[in-house]
Amino acid sequence: KHKLKTSYMGQEVYYFDSIDSTNIYANTIANQASEGSVVVSKEQTQGKGRSGKVWVSDNDQGIYFSTILKPSIPISRASFLTQVAGAALATSLERLGVACQIKWPNDLVLNGRKIAGILTEMRAEIESISYIIVGIGVNIGPKTFEESISTVATSLANEGYQIQDLDLLRAFFIDFEDLYEDFKNKDYTRILGILKDKSAVLGKEIYLIRDGQKDKVFAENIDEYGNLIVRNELGFLEEVFTGEISVRGL
Ligand code: BTN
User: Fold this and answer.
1) From the CB of residue 222, how many other CB atoms can be counted at a distance below 10 Å?
2) pTM of the predicted model as reported, rounded to 2 decimal places
């Protein structure tokens, strides 16, 4: 145990210099681990991104960690947890002097480019959740991105912020515990306040890519499930779900 101002979040830590993926490891220990346990690594050799993509996880370029949670919530609420984590990460980065934004549903962007990604995976029985793993990768160190990625990704160091891994983790677990407690208590006021406040998409015209189709819509709001409420070109409101894209079975 180490000095951390939380009651359970981040109190149990499994630390690695290198590992395949903190999400994969978390999955192997989740049944025995207590809620709020965290797997952290300086490097991942098989970092997983969303939609089956690779999350490049080199040493000294980022911090990679997965938090194990065991909430008693319906499966339908699980995908919102990714946004709760995003809200917490944005808040903690702000406390460290970094004003980033949240690109719905769950990317953190700085000066328009991605600095962090979240991959939430869960193990569920028919009706109930056994555990949820919230995996976060933050681009911290100086980094040269592949040309195809450099237009969409950046790092804290590349944008002029020197943040220590440990400072970020400590700050994050405090905010995450707070907002996760709100989430479990079905009190979404603070969470939604942050998501709206820091949103990079609300109040803007955006394009939605769904089933290979591109639709121009106006982003109006975020509801209590984390769905994006948009107005389509005919003037009708539509609800855009996050479920399928942010939560995948392990
Ligand atoms: C995304 O595609 O934006 C999500 C990236 C999530 C990366 C993190 S790094 C820690 C955890 N372990 C993984 O293998 N992936 C997540």
Assistant:
1) 25
2) 0.93
